[in-house]
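_Backbone structure tokens_
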Amino acid sequence: MRISELSRTSGVAVATIKYYLREGLLHEGQLTSATQAQYDESHVARLRLVRALIGVGGLSVAATREVLDQLDNPPESTHDLLGAAHRSLGPAVDEEVDTRAAESVLERLGWRVQGADRQAVRQLAAALAALEAADFPLPEDDVISYAHAMREIAEREVAGVPVESTEAAVRYMVLGTVLVEPLLLALRRLAQVDASARRYGTR
């Protein structure tokens, strides 16, 4: 299909497709002349993925490029796949952040986090520090309760990782991280509305 048909099929404007091609988010089509190329269903699928990552996932072009690189060049270890997904998707955190509060939480939980996964520890530390800075500190017991709820979700997610291929596992972990987090946030807010209505009543 030509780029105009690719645009109609995918629902992505031609100008946007050309931008994705320039940015390396979409692989080149098969050249049929100096100015024309043919595209196929792989381009449609990649466009839908890119739109999901940038749209629903809220990723930048640079972060989307990293995610796509992981999908195309996956690590060998299934555990390393998750670490790679988290490293490219999580917010950047100063490596010098004080992690003592986060370490205290992890020690109580008995969670073992090593190596590359330390980025998530720094993210937790930064989140706790932000709460303190806003004069809205959470008691550690509350943080532990949140952690237990997240652990239950994480166990279900990790148990669902496909084992038939590395590519399937990467796709599951990356998209599960990017696209499920907005779902979790929406469900949390709806749960708050429901809890408030039950506790305080509605007009």
